[in-house]
Structures are given as C-alpha cells and as structure tokens.
Amino acid sequence: MSKLSASAVKIVHRSSPVLSRAAISLTPAAAVSRLRELLDKEPSACAIRIGVKTKGCNGLTYTMDYAAEKAKFDEEVVHEEVKVLIDSKAQLSLLGTEMDFVETPLAAEFVFMNPNIAGTCGCGESFNLKPDMNKDETSATDR
Hints:
The protein is α/β, with parallel strands linked by helices. The protein has helices spanning 28-41, 91-94, 131-141; strands at residues 9-13, 24-26, 47-54, 60-67, 75-79, 82-86, 97-103, 108-114, 117-120, 127-129. The strands form three sheets. Strands 1-8-7-2 form a four-stranded mixed beta sheet. A four-stranded mixed beta sheet has the order 4-3-6-5. The chain has a two-stranded antiparallel ribbon with strand order 9-10. A hairpin with a 2-residue loop joins β5 and β6. It is globular, with a radius of gyration of 14 Å.
C-alpha cells in the first residue's frame, strides 16, 4: 500500500474550534471529494489515517497514509461515506480541527485549521501545540 505525501499538508492556526461531535470535520466540497478520489485509487485501503509525528523546525507535522484496517485505538470519523481514521497519538492535538483541500495555480494541498496550535514555522508545514496540549500529547505518546 502506498503512502500519501506529507508535503501536501499545510497548517493554519484557528483561534476557535469547529463545533462538531466528530474529532475532526471535513469540508464537503473540497476535502471529502479529494479524499474520495484518493481512496478510489487505492482499492486495498478502507480509510485515510491522519497522525502527527515529530518533524520540522517547529516540532510536529501531520501525516496522512492509506489504512487497510482500523487500529485498536484509532478514532473513526465518517463524512459522506468517506472514512478518516485518527491515530491515537494525534487525537488530542486534532480536536476541533477542520480539514480542507485547497487548489491554487501553484499548489494543491490539504489544509488543517487547528485551534490547538500555538504557532507554525515559516513554510507552514510544522507546528507546535499550546502548552496545555503538550502535556496531554506527551502522555498519549508514552502509552
């Protein structure tokens, strides 16, 4: 199963969370349709898994991979029959996030509007969490 590119992800700071029962919300016209296209190209995948890893000049970056199955502690979000799995280590840092897909003449990328980030690097591909989120994220990765 192939991997999705991490360079096609952009982080945008949002001051207030998106009110939703789901851990992450997807914009219907953009993110849902693009995720559906990606899943149609990879028949062995049942979902897209979103996670975070330590990388970049600001601490963390998002990861996106095809998922053949749901891991034990993954959070499942289904929007218009498109399934997104949130890795257990990323759940707290993604709460209230809205995921969009934006196309411009120079780029096509997923954009995460996340109320939990304190800042981003200059290129917008890595971020750090607000101090109260860092405690929760550290304890989640130690499990």
